[in-house]
Structures are given as C-alpha cells and as structure tokens.
Write a structure and sequence with these properties.
The protein contains 7 helices and no strands. Helix 1 (about 1-30) runs parallel beside helix 3, helix 2 (about 30-55) runs antiparallel to helix 3 (about 65-90) and helix 5 packs antiparallel against helix 6 (about 150-165). By secondary structure, it is an all-alpha fold. The radius of gyration is 16 Å and the shape is globular. It starts with a helix and ends with a helix.
C-alpha cells in the first residue's frame, strides 16, 4: 500500500506543478511551455491508472475506504484534464484576462489547500475549505457577469477545476473519519 500512497502523492504534485506552471505560461504567452505542460497530463493519467488498478485489485489498506479513495483518484484525473485543456486553449494564442488571472490563482491555491488537508486532515480545515469555496463561487458569479466570451471559456474551465477539487471533500471525510 506504500506504493499506492507514493504514486498518489506524485499525482497531487504533478497537478500542483501543472496548475502553477500553466498560470505562469499563460501570463507569459509561452506556447512552448504550454505544450510541455499539456504532455504532463499523460503522467497524471498514468499515475491515476496505476492507483485505480491497485484499488481494483487489492483495495485500499482499510477496505471500507476503497470507494472514497477511488473517487479522489477519478477527480484528480479530471483536474489534470482541466489544466491540460486550459493549456491547449492558451497555446492557440488566446490571452489570459484580468478576472481569469485572479481566479486562476485563487483556484490553484484552493487545490493546494485541499492537498494540505488531504495529508494533514483536521476537521476545522474542512470548514475553512467550505467557506473558501463559497467565497470563490461568489467571485465567479461576478466574473461571469462581467466577462467577454473568450474569458468566459477560461472562467468556466477554472470553475470546473474548483468544483472537481471541492467534490473530493466528502470522500476525503469518509476516508478519514
């Protein structure tokens, strides 16, 4: 089971790298780097497949925690796809708008907060994550009203990453409590 935990941590780390680097590359309009980040999703897929295989063959160390862990792996894979899709969009020469820039950074921080919660679970931090998501959703509502069509596509993708990250909250509590 140590190999599962090691690979899962790598999965988190690759996605965090994708999140941070995709924002930088989008700001700098660095086509070459954006295309490199797109290929990082292949590692995300490979690690997610490995974790799913272990969970399907052996289950998690505490078997009752297998379904929530499987769901978390599924969501991580979707989040990786979200960052890949953002990089594809920006690699076509599209620009990052001001609202999207701020929210992109906020959602990256939110993902990092979830990662920290996953590895250092404390119930009070779950509440903080719930409040943080509410704040971010309000920011998105305002941004959606003010944005142009091109920025709307970016905002929608970032919003999906936020939701996919938050959706791991319930399974994480099921696995930890």
């Amino acid at each position: 089971y140590r190999e599962y935990d090691t690979v899962l941590r790598r999965l988190f780390m690759i996605i965090m790298t994708m999140s941070e680097e995709s924002l930088k590359a989008a700001k700098e309009n660095d086509q070459k780097w954006l295309n490199t980040i797109i290929f990082m999703d292949q590692d995300v897929n490979r690690y997610a497949d490995f974790c799913r295989r272990i969970l399907n063959k052996r289950g998690y160390a505490e078997f009752k925690r297998t379904p929530p862990m499987y769901y978390i792996v599924e969501q991580l894979e979707k989040i990786g796809d979200g960052y890949r899709d953002l990089c594809r969009y920006f690699s076509k020469g599209k620009k990052l708008g001001k609202q999207a820039d701020v929210l992109f950074n906020d959602v990256n921080k939110f993902f990092r907060e979830f990662y920290e919660l996953y590895y250092k679970f404390e119930l009070k931090n779950v509440d903080r994550l719930v409040l943080r998501r509410r704040e971010l959703r309000e920011k998105f509502e305002i941004a959606f009203e003010k944005s142009e069509k091109d920025e709307m596509l970016v905002l929608f993708q970032i919003y999906n990453i936020l939701d996919n990250t938050f959706d791991m909250n319930g399974p994480l509590m099921a696995a930890r409590l």
